[in-house]
């Protein structure tokens, strides 16, 4: 039986509450007998700063590097507003992304039929929606040099950000997107602005070549990023996998998330380079933050974190069957009318965090 080491970093705010539901699912996985998951837990974010004076300890970083996958809850909160910049809670997450070289950010936008009325779009446009946005996470304009503001005198300043991409960075993110598409709807849209940006020209060229050489069985469409934004609102179900750079991916994934209804529902995965055994470093976390306003009350929606765990089973442990079952259980409890406060609708049954975990476990 395959066995895996999973590092749990619950973090701050509602992080520990939603992660507690994942721990129950880890136990469920072990009881299925299909795999053995061994978990360790450590601190990240504000709680790690309180304990060690750093947003993540060296010991926890070591664990993260050696584990088969990492699950993170959320970091931050008003309590740490005044800590030094390089020790702020988010620094723990950035350190993880950087040291594990997590270059591919996967953000699914899935609309459960039971929640289609909560979408910003009409029900018929989103009912059954299942898009995967693959965002390049370690390059592009957020990191390129020079990055500076220069004082020009006379009250004038000049600000510069630099968008840089090299061939290998585009190749590896393109491969992630094509491999995903092969297991999904077999369609990739590559979004860039080749009409006005050199990085867009290179992006288009490299994605085209990787497609031709390695993935010609997948359907590839090139789309200008602004048109992609428009099409996501006009008719989102035309998309399967969208691959794009760091900046466009930031915007397009937030845009797509609104089609699904609630922040409390959205999972994410960040994948790193393959090691010599073909294993990727990976970090799974909900899209939402630490929600300090509702922390400690057992009312947070745990579904985003549970769905992130399902992604972990699928992508890091090759347990797609168990991931399907968890996602099926989420859909089922929503059909049965269970709702946490953030997704509450008239006539439904309001439950807290633990009760939502109970419902999902009994559906399983
Ligand atoms: P961050 O800066 O960490 O992204 P944020 O300020 O953008 O945090 P969140 O912490 O994600 O925002 O919370 C935004 C709002 O959504 C809050 O009112 C919060 O209560 C609510 N919220 C976020 N996650 C959940 C959840 N899992 N269940 C219920 N409500 C949530
Ligand atoms: Mg936020």
From TrEMBL:
Residues annotated for NAD(+) binding in this entry: 77-90, 289-301
Binding site for Mg(2+): 226, 250, 254
Pathway: Amino-acid biosynthesis; L-leucine biosynthesis; L-leucine from 3-methyl-2-oxobutanoate: step 3/4
Binding of substrate, residues: 97, 107, 135, 226
Documented EC number(s): 1.1.1.85
Cofactor, free-text remark: Binds 1 Mg(2+) or Mn(2+) ion per subunit.
Broad EC category: oxidoreductase
Record's subunit section: Homodimer.
Family: Belongs to the isocitrate and isopropylmalate dehydrogenases family. LeuB type 1 subfamily.
Isopropylmalate dehydrogenase-like domain mapped to chain residues: 5-360
GO molecular function: 3-isopropylmalate dehydrogenase activity
Subcellular location as annotated: Cytoplasm
Taxonomic classification: Bacteria, Pseudomonadati, Pseudomonadota, Alphaproteobacteria, Hyphomicrobiales
Positions of the record's site feature: Important for catalysis: 142, 193
Gene: leuB
Keyword terms, alphabetized: Amino-acid biosynthesis, Branched-chain amino acid biosynthesis, Cytoplasm, Leucine biosynthesis, Magnesium, Manganese, Metal-binding, NAD, Oxidoreductase
Record-linked SMART domains: Iso_dh (SM01329)
Coiled coil regions, renumbered to chain: none
Species of provenance: Methyloligella solikamskensis
Protein name: 3-isopropylmalate dehydrogenase
Annotated TM spans: none
Biological role: Catalyzes the oxidation of 3-carboxy-2-hydroxy-4-methylpentanoate (3-isopropylmalate) to 3-carboxy-4-methyl-2-oxopentanoate. The product decarboxylates to 4-methyl-2 oxopentanoate.
Cofactor(s), names only, from the UniProt record: Mg(2+); Mn(2+)
Catalytic activity: (2R,3S)-3-isopropylmalate + NAD(+) = 4-methyl-2-oxopentanoate + CO2 + NADH
